[in-house]
Amino acid sequence: MIKILIISGEPSGDFLGANLINALRKKVKIESSRSISFQGIGGPLMENEGLISLIRQERINKMGFIEILFNLFDLLKVLRTVSNYCLAWKPDLIVTIDSPEFSFRLSKRVKKILKTTPIVHYVMPSIWAWRPRRLEKIRRFVDHILALFPFEPKLAEINKISCEFVGHPVVSKKIPAVQDIVVLRKNLGIGNNVPIMAVMPGSRRSEIKNNLPIFLDTIKMVAAVYTDLVFVIPAVSAVEELVVSKVSKFREKTGLNVLVLNQKNFDIANDFENLKFSLFRTAAIALAASGTVVLELARTGVPMVVGYRAHYINELLIRALVKTEKANLIDIIANSNEIPEFIFSNCTPENLSKAIKVLLNDSTLTAKQMELSRTVMKSLGFGGANPGDRAAQSVINFVKSYEKKSPLI
């Protein structure tokens, strides 16, 4: 029995972990007759692939100094529980996915005892944006990194840590068929020819609290000019109750047609990703919080405006530490300025609504965004091997060459 401890602290990591588990199981089966046990922390997608979850993923899905501080004691409790279990279970391989604050603390603890157990981290921390010296410390307890962006292995090489670009999972996302879009619109009660604006305030409670009020005021300003627009907000299970509550109050106050796409709307909760992508594919424009969703919108060909607010203490810290001039991943990857973005104090309903109106009125600007999106998707691996398969092969190749020779194969 091959024992793999795998940790994912957020929905995007759940998708990565599910694909990795699926690909590892297939590849190891081809090369070995041994079965695999996956245990750790993950969401519904990883659990559907056979992960035995030790702790609910939501307990470590925290972001920003304030949210981490308020949940510090519980996070430390989870850290002790998982690290103690890991030391007792003695896995053959440890894979941590994103969530660097939790993942690296766990890896550091475990590596002190299980010195010969290889530790792989999936998603390089954003050293190109802030705290560039982190890799010097990380290499003491992380043996190999799976990178999502093509420029990251060179940064790892400078810091003498093993790293391979495996492609970004967004390029393997399936583009919904016309029938999927028809079903979505029917379930939401939106006619096939009615224009939709997709609104994504974030996937964490802190993001909803900070971004959603501003985004709702933006909707009010846009709706005053574009009276035929319908606004749809997709909400993952962790925040859907909060989103529904705030949107319901907004609708009662304004009478505007703002809908929430959540898992309770449908009987196919495990297919929420497809529902979300169907929404993106049929949307005329999108307003999104800065994050991975920007790449998802680019994958589905949606013109967008990006905004982001955080707790004022987090904003002060980020301003002091972050070195990049842009926040959205499209412009960062392409070194461009095509995506309108408004961060922190600039993220106001006035600024956001003005940028949205400009995009809706200028097809030349939207065409430039679409061309940029196609270029970025190609650089992230579109047209090549599935990123999940590449990640699994990278893990296997690394473990085979690992100095202490893990018994993975």
What does this structure look like?
Helices cover 50% and strands 16% of the residues. It has helices at residues 11-31, 44-48, 64-70, 72-89, 100-113, 134-138, 152-158, 178-188, 205-225, 240-254, 272-282, 293-300, 312-321, 329-334, 349-361, 363-379, 387-401; strands at 2-8, 36-42, 52-56, 93-97, 119-122, 144-147, 162-165, 196-200, 230-235, 258-262, 285-289, 304-308, 341-343. The chain has 409 residues and is an alpha/beta fold. The mean pLDDT is 89. The protein contains 17 helices and 13 strands.
In a few lines, what is going on in this structure?
This protein is of the alpha/beta class and 409 residues long. It contains 17 helices and 13 strands.
Which labels suit this protein?
single chain; 409 residues; alpha/beta; seven-stranded parallel beta sheet; six-stranded parallel beta sheet; 17 helices; 16% strand
Distance from first to last alpha carbon: 10 Å
Taken in chain order, the helices and strands follow as: EHEHEHHEHEHEHEHEHEHEHEHEHHEHHH
Instruction: Work out the helix count.
Output: 17
Low-confidence stretches: none
Relative helix content = 40-55%
Overall mean pLDDT stands at 89
Rg, please?
21 Å
Instruction: Give the strand tally.
Output: 13
Strand order of the main beta sheet, please?
3-2-1-4-5-6-7
Structural shape: globular
What fraction of the residues are assigned to beta strands by DSSP?
15-25%
| Largest β sheet strand count, sense and barrel closure | 7 strands, parallel
Detail the topology: elements first, then pairings.
Layout: E1 2-8, H1 11-31, E2 36-42, H2 44-48, E3 52-56, H3 64-70, H4 72-89, E4 93-97, H5 100-113, E5 119-122, H6 134-138, E6 144-147, H7 152-158, E7 162-165, H8 178-188, E8 196-200, H9 205-225, E9 230-235, H10 240-254, E10 258-262, H11 272-282, E11 285-289, H12 293-300, E12 304-308, H13 312-321, H14 329-334, E13 341-343, H15 349-361, H16 363-379, H17 387-401
Parallel strand pairs: 1-2, 1-4, 2-3, 4-5, 5-6, 6-7, 8-9, 8-11, 9-10, 11-12, 12-13
